[in-house]
Amino acid sequence: MLLVLSEEYKEHLAFLPQVDPAVVFEFGRIAVEFLKRGINSKVYDGAARKLGFPITTVQHGVEGLMFLLTESSKLMITDIDFKDSVMVLGFSTALNEILLQLYVENQTTIRSTLTQLAPSLPSYHNLEWRLDVQLGSRSMRHQVVPVVTMLLNLTMGTSENRRCCLQTNPSTLLHLIAVLEAALASMKNNHARRILRNIK
Amino acid sequence: MRFRFCGDLDCPDWVLAEISTLAKISSVKMKLLCSQVLKDLLEEGIDYEKVSKLTADAKFESGDIKASIAVLSFILSSAAKHNVESESLSSELQQLGLPKEHTTGLCKSYEDKHSALQDKLREKSLRLSRLNSVSWRVDCILSSSELKEVNEPTVHLKLQAQGAESGSAETTVVSVSAEKFRVLLTELKQAQAMMNALQ
Question: Which pTM was predicted?
Answer without folding.
Answer: 0.65
